[in-house]
Amino acid sequence: MIDFELSPKIRATKNMVHMFAENAIRPIAREYDEKEHEKPWELFKMVQKVMGSMMGGGLGGGEAKEEKPEGGEKKPRETNLMTAVTVEEIFWGDAGIALSFPGGGLGGAAVQASGTPEQREKFLARFSGEEPCWGAMAITEPEAGSDTANIKTTAVLDGDEWVLNGEKIFVTSGKSALEDSKGFVVVWATVDRSAGRAGIKPFIVEHGTPGMQITKIEDKMGIRCSDTVSLSFMDCRIPKENILGSPEVMDKTKTEGFKKVMATFDATRPMVAAMAIGVGRAALDFIKEALAEQGVEIRYGISPNRMTVLEREIMQMEADLKAARLLTWRAVWMLDNGERNDLQASMAKAKAGAAVTRITQKAVELMGPLGYSRECMLEKWMRDSKINDIFEGTGQIQLLITARRLLDFGRDQLK
Q1: How far, in Å, CA of 93 to CA of 282, rounded?
Q2: 64 Cβ contact partners less than 8 Å away, ≥ 6 residues apart
Q3: Looking at 194-198, 349-353, 368-372, which range is the least confident one?
Q4: Mean pLDDT confidence for 309-324
């Protein structure tokens, strides 16, 4: 029998985090949407002190540790499922503030996925202290978005140091990571352009490293509390040991190192889906509450032929949201149990990104002029929602990955 119930532990955490989101985050959401690039520091300090790296900028996930009760029997592993449920509740409160929370973000996830035990101990421990700390990852370039094989940032070994040169754009939390004394950015660069993807490696560049600087801070449509920047690297020197994985390029046809780092996204894409679900649920909850206040009843269980257009729209929104949530929970359950989940991670993100875009736009439409005004939060949720269909691989890319996996086609067979 399939059981979709959450464990008592996760339900208790879900309720606690929802109360926090409702009482601490939602009330200041509009303020920090209008004050782009400013951060609610008192809230951050409270989050870091109480919950440590659990939030992780909403992009947690990674290896799950086995849990055993006193009797010695193995418990179901729920690390990533717990994170996904937590992320949904936090983003129900506000996407911009939640995405700007201190934590490892994609940078921490990359270290978790492909770092050595020494690197994990050195860099990931920074996020469990009481002081806010940020990590980031720089992969996108002006000429290399979804096509990561076209990365032009270079890394050249010079004695005991790597020398990085290049430019990165759209780095989430890049400003926070560079201004944080314990922060770092994981930078993707090529050690051999002729080797294609096999030559691409990730490097840890710490706060204060000479040669790394912010060249632009983006003004965005949504998630405005979260900073997004462009970075330049000019003869940026980092220790030789700051590479994640092996520096060797054994064979142009072998991309094990690249694939291992790409596994970062197998952990974080379901969390992006959870973010989307949180925003979509906020909009749907608002619509249903507004209708209830007007005495409008949604009649469940009746024939579709008897439903009003409004009832069909609400039920479709609910169905899309629940389908996205189940796909997300499936992806994180597989991650918790050590199963390959690249297909499920892409399916979850593709579905959630499309669903939240439709749900928030439909919510604005149903509320008419009120939905379009700044009197309520619907217009903000619509602006915040679209990023989930763009970053960490666009919806189109996720559908392409899904098609390749289902059809068993390689990259050269299906582009």
Answers
A1: 8
A2: 77, 78, 79, 80, 335, 336, 337, 338
A3: 194-198
A4: 95
Taking every pair of C-alpha atoms in the chain, what is the biggest distance, in angstroms? 75
Where in the chain do CATH 2.40.110.10 domains reside?
Answer: 133-242
Per CATH, the number for 8-114 is 1.10.540
Residue 48 or 288, more confident: 288
Of 88, 311, 313, 392, which one is the catalytic site residue?
A: 392
135 phi and psi angles, rounded to 5 deg: -125, 160
CATH level 2 (architecture), domain 133-242: Beta Barrel (2.40)
- Strand bridging mode 184-190 / 200-206: antiparallel
- CA proximity to 90, closest of 158, 17, 159: 17
Q: Residue 318 catalytic? A: no
Residue whose pair of structure tokens reads 């799950």 in the numeric block: 64
| From-to residues of CATH 1.10.540 in the chain | 8-114
> Among 348, 332, 355, 205, which Cα is nearest to 279's?
355
Considering the domain delimited by 256-407, tell me its CATH architecture: Up-down Bundle (1.20)
